[in-house]
Design a protein that fits this description.
With 321 residues, the protein is α+β, with helices and mostly antiparallel strands. The chain has 3 domains: 12-103, no CATH class; 110-241, 2-Layer Sandwich (Tetrahydropterin Synthase, Chain A), CATH 3.30.479.30; 250-305, no CATH class. It contains 7 helices and 9 strands; from the N terminus they run E-H-H-E-E-E-E-E-E-E-H-H-H-E-H-H. The chain has helices spanning 15-38, 43-63, 140-145, 165-188, 210-224, 243-283, 290-305, and strands at residues 12-14, 67-70, 74-80, 83-88, 92-96, 100-106, 110-120, 126-137, 229-241. The strands form 3 sheets. A 3-stranded antiparallel β-sheet has the order 1-5-2. Helix 4 packs across helix 5 and helix 6 (243-283) runs antiparallel to helix 7. The protein starts with 11 loop residues before the first strand and ends in a 16-residue tail after the last helix. 16% of the residues are buried.
Length: 321
C-alpha cells in the first residue's frame, strides 16, 4: 500500500482523441439501433445484437466520466476503489479509467492575514501580535489522507466530506490558521517585547525583524508538515502592547526618551564648559579662582541645560558681596 505521494503511472490517454472516439462510438450506436429497428432479422440475432449494442452504450456512457482537465498548479489524486494509485500533476486534457475517483487539489499559493492575537511575551507582558502567511499544498497524499478536510465554516461539515475544491482549500486554511496561532504564541513567548532598563536582550520581538520571521516560518513548517503544506513566507505584520498596559508603557518609553535626551544634553554641556574654562585659562583672558570657576560652571550649565531661554540677571555688586 502506498503511503506517500507518487506520480500516477496508470493508463492515461490523450483527451482529444478519446473524445472524438466516444462521439463517433455514440453516433455509431445510435445508427446501429436505428438499423436494428428497420431491418428484419431472426429473433435470436436481434436479441444478441441488442444486448451487444446495450453493453457498448453503457460502456460509452461510463467512458464520459474518465475525462479530466488539469490547469497549471493543479493536481488530481487518483483513487481506485479506496486505494491511492498516484497523483497526476501534468497539465492538459486527458482520459483515464472512469472507475478512478479523481480528487482535485490546487497547488497555488494562498495568503492568510491572521487577526492579531493577545499573547504574553517572555517577561509576561500582554502584547497584541499578528502575522501574514503565504502557504501552499506540496504533498497531495498528506493533504488528502493525513488530515480531516472538514471545514467548520461550511454547511457541508455536518458529517459530510468535502468534494468541492474551494471547500477543501477553506478547510486547509482553517487548519493553517489554528496551527499558525499556536506557532505565533510559542515564538512570542520566547522573546521580550523590547529591551527594558538595565537589560540587554540580543533579540526582541520589536527589533528581531527577519530573525523572528525566520523562526516563525520554521515553527510553522514543522507544524504543517503533517498536512503536506509548505509555508512560503511568514512575517509578523502587527506588534503592540495590549490596551491594558499600552498607556503605561507609552509613558515609560517617553520617560526613557527624555532621560536619554537629558543625558546627552548634560554630556554636551559639561564638554562645552570644560572647553570654555580651558580656553580662558590657556589664553589668559581672565584669572579665575575656584569660587569664580564654580559660579561660571553653574551659570553655563543653567544656560545650556535649560529647556527655556535663560533670563540674564545683572549683578550690580561683586561676586563676593
Amino acid at each position: 500500500m502506498k503511503t506517500k505521494e507518487e506520480i500516477f503511472t496508470g493508463v492515461k490517454l490523450p483527451g482529444i482523441p478519446m473524445l472524438l472516439f466516444n462521439i463517433l462510438l455514440l453516433l455509431a450506436l445510435i445508427g446501429a439501433f436505428v438499423w436494428l429497428v428497420i431491418v428484419t432479422l431472426p429473433v435470436i440475432l436481434i436479441v444478441v445484437v441488442s444486448i451487444l449494442l446495450t453493453l457498448l452504450f453503457i460502456f460509452n456512457c461510463i467512458a464520459w466520466a474518465g475525462f479530466a482537465q488539469i490547469e497549471p498548479n493543479e493536481a488530481y489524486v487518483m483513487i481506485f476503489f479506496g486505494k491511492y494509485d498516484g497523483t497526476v500533476k501534468d497539465n492538459g486534457f486527458f482520459w483515464v479509467n472512469p472507475f478512478y475517483a479523481k480528487k482535485k487539489l490546487t497547488l497555488r499559493a494562498r495568503n492568510l492575514d491572521a487577526q492579531p492575537i493577545k499573547v504574553n511575551d517572555k517577561k509576561g507582558n500582554p502584547v497584541l501580535i499578528g502575522q501574514v502567511l503565504v502557504w501552499r499544498v506540496v504533498d497531495t497524499y498528506k493533504a488528502s489522507f493525513d488530515i480531516d478536510n472538514m471545514s467548520k465554516s461550511s454547511p457541508l461539515s455536518q458529517g459530510i466530506k468535502l468534494d468541492n475544491v474551494q471547500d477543501k482549500m477553506k478547510s486547509y486554511e482553517d487548519f493553517v490558521k489554528v496551527q499558525s496561532d499556536a506557532a505565533l504564541r510559542y515564538v512570542a513567548g520566547m522573546y521580550a517585547y523590547d529591551n527594558l532598563e538595565k537589560e540587554d536582550e540580543k533579540v526582541t520581538l520589536r527589533s528581531g525583524g527577519q530573525e523572528i520571521n525566520d523562526i516563525l516560518e520554521q515553527q510553522l513548517n514543522e507544524r504543517l508538515a503533517i498536512a503536506g503544506i509548505e509555508i512560503v513566507e511568514a512575517r509578523v505584520n502587527y506588534l503592540a502592547y495590549a490596551p491594558e498596559i499600552a498607556a503605561v508603557m507609552l509613558r515609560r518609553q517617553q520617560a526613557e526618551a527624555i532621560i536619554s535626551a537629558r543625558e546627552k544634553i548634560v554630556e554636551g554641556a559639561v564638554g562645552m564648559v570644560k572647553h570654555a574654562l580651558a580656553k580662558l585659562s590657556a589664553e589668559k583672558v581672565i584669572e579665575l579662582d575656584d569660587e569664580k570657576k564654580a559660579a561660571m560652571v553653574s551659570n553655563l550649565l543653567v544656560v545650556l541645560c535649560s529647556e527655556e531661554n535663560a533670563q540674564p540677571v545683572i549683578n550690580s555688586g561683586t561676586l563676593y558681596s
